Known about the structure:
This protein is of the alpha/beta class. It contains twelve helices and eleven strands.
Amino acid sequence: MTALSLGYSPCPNDTFIFCAMIQGRIPDAPRCREVLEDIETLNTLARKRRLDLTKISFHALGHLRDHYVLLRSGGALGTGCGPLVVAREPLRPEMLRGRKIALPGRLTTAALLLRLFDPGLDQLVYLPFDQIMPACQRGDVDAGVIIHESRFTFAEHGLSQVIDLGAWWEEETGHPIPLGGILARRDLGGAMHDRLNRSIRSSIEFAYAHPDDVKPYIRRHAQEMDESVMQQHIDLYVNQYSLQYGNDGEAAIRDLFARAERAGILPTSQRSLFE
């Protein structure tokens, strides 16, 4: 069988999840070829149907349901792990209207949460996620939505938190925050979808059981990230929902889609969301 193209980011949570699977340590896992890109690039590749399975933002999934299904393992949901709006000058959330706000891509879940929080925010610009804090520092933008390891370091860059979009979502809905999931091509079929779910769960379990075996792979792709920040990243974004969404995780995802469809941000679809 030809290797499946598997897209995920070089961020520690993704490399932690997929290391064992991509290195052939999971006996029943299908052979996969890694495609390491930032989340917005993965969103774009999936829209072009260039990947067999991939990490994706839930926002992007709303435009891909004809050709992809959501697997039940490998995703990023949780509490206290959502995108943050930060600014150089202290701002209150209601002061964001009319100000230029940087987002890490049009189809990121961060962009979706910001639009759900306040549909009246219309001065939006899109930058690679690692350029958002520097743009805020320089005053190129008035505020920025940050994700990934930036959550842990923004104060060191002289920035202040305006609002935690994840905390807003949790308070508004009572659900964990759906950030990203793993998609597989619909035409791979149910048997392969089940095999992929099992393989991803086994890969996560391997990483927890053998952290020293996966750490070199994680570190190699984490660039200059401090070891403690790398571990914080894993602890925050890899949890029981990564193993399997369960009823509460699936309810959170369905609620996100329902709200986005009612707001006209996502198109409605008759296609099943999950495999």
